[in-house]
Amino acid sequence: MDRIYWDSFKTFLKVGAFTFGGGYAMIPIIENEVVEKHKWVSREEFIDLIAVAQSCPGVFAINISTFIGYKLRRERGALCSALGTALPSFFIILLIAMFFHHFIDVPWVAAMFNGIRPAVVALIAVPTFNMAKSANITLATCWIPLVSALLIWKLGVNPIFIIIAAGIGGYLYGQFLKE
Q: Among candidates 68, 45, 64, 42, which has minimal Cα distance to 55?
């Protein structure tokens, strides 16, 4: 059997098991594993995969692991990578569901969750800034993500409309304005 199946499963199992804060907090770890360590995709491909994974419905971490696995070994590679990502969360949630009601009122457990929240914000902020640098977002273009975030947050604009508008804007810019 091809070793890449086991390697991709093991890599994404590690990512799924030791990353807290959701899919966006996983970005630097996934990038390190698949771009730097294993060299399965280039940095440019990784940024494109992030954009596609964010645009697709479903869990971000599953989407990106599936895309990387598919690039490696088609359907079987996608299955191995996706299972590696999903299994740790599945078992952790299963354990929490079985025992959480015993700990819900324990003060130190509540304090622990309150302490984790700021760290999760930092885990999400760092890859956001790294992606902005990799995507060549400059002072001249930083208004685009800021306005997009404000439209979604303050005015409740559906993110799908933001994505469609950004795609149309990028296309028009590339066709008519960019030299």
A: 64
